[in-house]
Amino acid sequence: MEVKEYIESGILEMYVFGDLTAAEAAKVQAMAVEHPEIAAELAKIEETLEQVSMKMAIEPTPAVKERIMAKIEGPRAEKPVIPLYPTRLFAYGLAACVTLLLISSVAAFTFWEKWKNAERELVAMRDDNNKIVANMASLREEYTQYQGVLRKPTFLKVHLESTPSFPGNEMMVYWDKQSNHVMIDMMKLPQNDANHQYQLWAIVDGKPVDAGVFDVQPDNSGMLQMKDINNAVAFAVTLEPKGGSVNPTMEQMYVMGKI
Fold it and tell me: Measured between alpha carbons, how far apart are the two ends of the chain, in Å?
């Protein structure tokens, strides 16, 4: 099997996800040592998976109970000692009562503030936990989606490389020759503004065919399903006005790849 076919077979992604047997994984490692292109592709897949995981990672607040209780209780203040004298007892008693009232009011207000802060921390921690649960569910769904694509032998993996006008960009297209389904992933493209969208084109019988529009934003992760395509020989991506164009703007072609 040629190096290009080996890379496009999907076995490298399965190796990164840990879905190979020990013998299959050893063969991938041997191929990576023998072929620098395979080693580079493995590093690229691992980097993309790490970026997706880091985007979805949220660290919860540790030792919540101890920190909140410490804030509520605070340092214990000693009881004020109010000296009593035989003379002017009433005046001093009244002053002592007023002082105690002020101290009690300040203490009550301080306790209330600490309680409200603790309550806000609890709400924030609950929101963080909800985000963690939602992100973990999303990550599991993406992992299942990757497995479904990579394990299906009819899916072709097409690497779209940057054009001379827009260096440093790339993208992956997965095309199912049997069902005509098209998925895109690993979009290393500049973020588009609100007035433009990227448009995927399939080259069919020498003509560009619209395969759908998509956005590239900082929080993008996972595969996107595009329009079904039949008998494609290549794929390309251009930047078009929002909603897409009837024909591709060739001067705005960012990436392209042949099947």
Answer: 16
Long-range contacts of 146-154 (CB under 8 A, 24+ apart): 146/13, 146/17, 146/223, 147/17, 147/19, 149/10, 149/174, 149/183, 149/223, 150/10, 150/13, 150/14, 150/17, 150/19, 151/10, 151/14, 151/19, 152/176, 154/178, 154/179
Quick one: 236 and 204 in the same domain?
yes
Residue 69 is part of which domain span? 64-144
Say yes or no: 256 and 175 in one domain: yes
Looking at the 3D structure of the chain, how many domains does it have?
Answer: 3
Residues 253 and 223 in one domain: yes
pLDDT band at 180 (very low <50, low <70, confident <90, very high): very high
Q: Running DSSP on this structure, what letter comes out for residue 251?
A: G
Predicted confidence band at 80 (pLDDT cuts at 50, 70, 90)?
very low
Same domain as 102, residue 30 = no
Do 49 and 73 lie in one domain? The reply is no
Whole-prediction pTM: 0.51
Cα–Cα distance measured from residue 257 to residue 233, given in angstroms and rounded to the nearest whole number? 9
Picking from 237, 177, 230, the residue whose alpha carbon sits closest to that of residue 204 is: 230
SS3 136: helix
